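Case study 2.
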Amino acid sequence: MIRSRIVRTVVWLAVSISAASPAFAALKPGSKAPDFTTQSSLGGNVSTFALNEALKKGPVVLYFYPAAFTKGCTIEAHLFADATDRYKALGATVIGVSGDNIDTLNKFSVSECRSKFAVAADTDKSIMKAYDAVLGLGHANRTSYVIAPDHTIIYEYTSLNPDEHVNNTLKALEQWKTAQAK
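Prediction:
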């Protein structure tokens, strides 16, 4: 309990300090998405998530968040969980990534993600670094990407406010889908 409060305080401080800092240089649309494979949890069940494999099924919404069970990350997880059917209707896979360990993500995937989508562990921060999504003190910045099946990033959005990540990524997917149909 005390450790949890300390972690939340550290994350809050990192977010507060970073919010006052200049904008981060996230990967831009048109860039190729770096491939990665890592442990993930969906409904408390551990598996391996491989971006390359997920892209064979359709676009991927990759979102980074600072830390499980913090206020903004819980809000964002609920919003993604609520929109899961809309993502599936667009043929998209959602994956959340943080620096949390897999044991923490097992709990988060059940309680906050409501067993609707997977969350992945990036304990060595290699995925965050590859996507330029590192926040102060080694946590992930709140950055969302939409990645087309050809590994092209078609949308990027960075904001510590969790409110628009879902709406923005859904809109980007809908626009991409419309363009593909032409």
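The beta strands are 37-42, 45-50, 60-64, 93-98, 118-121, 143-147, 153-158.
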